[in-house]
Write a structure and sequence with these properties.
transmembrane helix; membrane; Carbohydrate ABC transporter permease; MetI-like; mainly alpha
């Protein structure tokens, strides 16, 4: 009886310690976003005070109106949303198609080609700026959304992720049975592989959408007209060389982050439901 009580007490202590660590981790994760919100609701005087304000102020609307008056905020949000959604959909389709080919089809040079794709993951993306810019210039795509969408449609990590997921979750016997029944390779991919790999779709969609939304360097290089700016490039216009309004800058950054958080939460719910659906179908 004493041993059982001691074991129960130790279990409670371990769980309590784990919950405490989780609570501290959650606070540390949320605090930067809360601090950005606090700065977005205060003016420069409150932000520059020592100690600075730790509670929200009353300048949220005023700071946001300054953002709207300085840059085309909603136009830039729409541009980022359009580019991120279109590119993510293209990545999901093309990378899953390539991943299925590498996982289930046998062709000459398959392993060598797959290794070559993996090697490209070790190359810094900055090294490809000049050749990509040269191609975009020759295609006359400067200041065009195509200059951002098309280079991002193929992702080495996406191909690797889909190949590994399809290899482990789509049985070869099921593919062979479908081919015996007369299904083409694309129909096997579309009708058999896709319902199983929906969880992989959700995961890759979250990763790629966030990456494209937060991309700054490549849009800065190829977008010349203000009407084509994505939100990350447009936010650069809030920084003045002479007068720095930190409240306005943080307001623009805060509101630019809100759509990303909303979409992340929506995809997160889809990811959880897709895990259940994929498990049942498999």
């Amino acid at each position: 009886m004493g041993d059982s009580y001691t074991q129960k007490q130790s279990t409670i202590l371990v769980k309590g310690f784990l919950y405490f660590l989780l609570a501290i981790s959650a606070i540390l994760s949320i605090f930067p976003f809360y601090w950005m919100f606090v700065m977005a609701t205060n003016d420069n005087s409150a932000i520059n005070n020592l100690p600075p304000a730790f509670i929200p102020g009353g300048e949220l609307v005023a700071n946001f109106m300054n953002v709207i008056n300085t840059i085309d905020f909603f136009g830039a949000i729409w541009n980022s949303l359009f580019v991120s959604v279109v590119t993510t959909i293209g990545v999901l389709f093309l990378c899953s198609l390539a991943g299925y080919a590498f996982a289930k089809l046998k062709f000459k040079g398959r392993d060598i080609l797959f290794i070559a794709i993996l090697v490209t993951m070790m190359i810094p993306p900055q090294l490809g700026l000049i050749p990509q810019y040269y191609i975009i210039t020759k295609l006359d795509w400067l200041s065009d959304m195509k200059a951002i969408i098309f280079p991002g449609l193929i992702d080495a990590f996406g191909i690797f992720w889909m190949r590994q997921y399809i290899s482990s979750n789509v049985p070869d016997e099921l593919v062979d049975a479908a081919k015996i029944d007369g299904c083409s390779n694309f129909r096997v991919y579309w009708n058999i592989a896709i319902p199983v790999i929906i969880p992989a779709f959700a995961t890759l969609a979250i990763i790629r959408f966030m990456y494209i939304w937060n991309d700054f360097l490549w849009p800065l290089v190829v977008l010349r007209e203000e009407s084509a700016y994505t939100i990350q490039v447009a936010l650069r216009g809030l920084i003045d060389n002479y007068v720095r309004d930190n409240g306005m800058i943080m307001s623009g950054t805060f509101w630019a982050t809100v759509p990303l958080i909303i979409i992340f939460l929506l995809f997160n719910r889809l990811f959880i439901s897709s895990l259940t659906e994929g498990a049942v179908k498999s």
